[in-house]
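Fill in residues.
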């Protein structure tokens, strides 16, 4: 009810695809001007929306599916408003990532949301390398035409971990497949992926995290130098290295500060 009320009271509505959103508005009898705001026009459309907000109008932002501003160009619009002191309120709606986590059957107390993996080879490799030692449950979004490649990349990088593939959540064709990365890859060799997916992947064990961490082959001094070379103070670098290794700060400090 609050969502409908918000749409009814807004001066105009920014929609990812006005042709899709108008169906929702017609269903609830909401007659408000619609403007297009999506990935490909967010720079120009965002400034136009901002100008109207600064003139005192109110805007409701909607997306075709999922949660506005989460892996969505609405993130930019919220940032613009924050920079100009324009208040932004949220009407909690469907968030595919958290919904998938809840039904995944995997550990839910700690998780990391990575959105879509980069399609740029170098960035994708770096992300997967970093995720090797991630102990929290990992959440990814993926489009159907990229699913097979992503499953293969994940299995190669992470090994054969548990995964829940959740698609079309809360919709007519909702499906949840709880399996392993290797079994998922085999399944989709003969089954065409359909709909948008959330991939919920088991995190690394503490043992795996230490064995696959970037610092596994570094000495304590090299580990600290890794962080200082990237702009950290020595004190902060020692703290971070200690956190990485699961030891006390004093242990790293004594080794690093010891004179040869």
């Amino acid at each position: 009810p609050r969502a409908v009320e918000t749409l009814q009271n807004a001066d105009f509505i920014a929609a990812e695809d006005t042709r899709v959103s108008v169906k929702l508005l017609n269903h609830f009898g909401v007659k408000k001007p619609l403007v297009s705001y999506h990935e490909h026009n967010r720079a120009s459309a965002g400034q136009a929306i901002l100008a109207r907000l600064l003139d005192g109008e109110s805007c409701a932002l909607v997306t075709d599916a999922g949660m506005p501003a989460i892996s969505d160009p609405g993130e930019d619009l919220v940032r613009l408003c924050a920079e100009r002191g324009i208040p932004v309120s949220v009407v909690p709606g469907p968030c595919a990532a958290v919904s998938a986590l809840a039904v995944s059957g995997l550990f839910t107390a700690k998780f990391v949301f990575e959105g879509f993996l980069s399609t740029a080879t170098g960035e994708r490799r770096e992300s997967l390398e970093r995720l090797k030692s991630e102990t929290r449950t990992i959440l990814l979004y993926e489009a159907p035409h990229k699913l097979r490649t992503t499953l293969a990349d994940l299995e190669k990088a992470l090994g054969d971990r548990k995964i829940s593939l959740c698609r079309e959540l809360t919709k007519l064709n909702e499906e949840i497949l709880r399996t392993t990365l290797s079994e998922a890859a085999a399944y989709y060799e003969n089954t065409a992926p359909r709909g948008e997916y959330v991939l919920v992947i088991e995190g690394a064990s503490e043992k795996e995290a230490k064995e696959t961490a970037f610092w596994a082959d570094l000495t304590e001094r090299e580990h600290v130098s890794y962080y200082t070379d990237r702009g950290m103070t020595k004190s902060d670098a020692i703290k971070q290295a200690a956190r990485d290794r699961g030891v006390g700060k004093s242990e790293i400090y004594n080794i690093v500060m010891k004179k040869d």
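The CA atoms of residues 227 and 237 lie 5 Å apart.
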